[in-house]
Amino acid sequence: MTALPGSAAPDTAAMAAASGLFDARRYAEAQPAFEALHEAYPDHPEVLVYLGKLAGKRQEREQALDYFAQAIELQPEEARYHFEYGAAAGLFAGTLGTNFKALGYARQASKSMTRAIELDPENLNYRQGLIEFSLEAPPIAGGGSKRAHAQADAIARRDPAKGAFAHAAIYRAEGNHAAALDTLSKLIALSPENYFALFNFGRCAAESGERLEQGRTYLEKCLSLPAPDQGAPPAHVWWNIATIEKQLGNRTAAIAALEQATTLAPHDRRIAEDLALYLAEDV
After folding, report:
1. Neighbours of 120 (CB within 10 A)
2. Considering just the CA atoms, what is the radius of gyration of the chain in Å?
3. Which one, of 193, 100, 80, 181, lies nearest residue 141 by Cα?
């Protein structure tokens, strides 16, 4: 952590202990730890950012934004602070319904996330965040699919695979499943064992009813690969296979796939309800 000119940096051990509590999701313990640091170092932006994050966890949206704004005022060239503010403003706007206040915060979100990208253009997480915001917000609020695709293009120039995923997600959000499937298909052709591409193709096929047999093949291939840490779990792979089998009219195979999914995720009520409803259907 870099100290500001003319300001004292928080005690390294105290800061590490407080941030460790936050990272461990022990927010109730992290709160007084950061409050004590703030009392001792009221003008240090990193402490303010953590207090903003904690306020966000409590859904105290305006207080969170105030902390992030203070951090930006102290270090206006720090991209991460602008992104934190933008993400928080976007979340707050989403809770306000459709009114001028929501529109104002949505515009602030767009502006702040855009500024974060200007300050750190190689950070693909910032660009992905702006894509997700743009898919939720209308053009009048700084969103829209056109802007989302522009960020996906920028991601693709830096990382073609991530760019393809970004474009596919946007197409899916637009309801353009054919374009999403085409994009993922090209990625799979280049990387046949890309778990994320295989799963997303299968899920998109299941949702849309398009290219069902190909989707099933790709989902079955997922089951032969180790699921990545952040990848869809095998239970969800089986669930999507079941959805495809239903659409193909393969009732026995659909039931078997749902039973596999419930065995792997016995506490997932959505899968259990899907199985119960399907078994109750007249045949």
Report:
1. 18
2. 23
3. 100
Residue 243: which of 275, 280, 276 has the closest Cα? 275
The C-alpha torsion from 155 through 158 and 159 to 162, rounded to 10°, is -10
DSSP-based three-state secondary structure for 225: coil
Give the pLDDT of residue 229.
86
- As to burial, measured by CB atoms within 10 angstroms (0-12 exposed, 13-18 middle, 19+ buried), residue 14 is middle
- Helix residue spans in the chain (DSSP H): 12-23, 27-40, 45-57, 61-74, 79-95, 100-119, 124-136, 145-158, 160-174, 177-190, 195-208, 212-223, 234-248, 251-264, 269-280
CA distance 170 to 131: 8
Give the whole-angstrom CA distance, residue 155 versus residue 36.
40
Alpha-carbon separation of residue 258 from 173, 177, 182, 235, 276 (angstroms): 26, 24, 27, 9, 10
Taking the model in full, what pTM does it have?
Answer: 0.80
Model pLDDT for residues 60-115, shown as the tens digit of each residue: 999 999 999 999 999 999 999 999 999 999 999 989 888 999 999 999 999 999 99
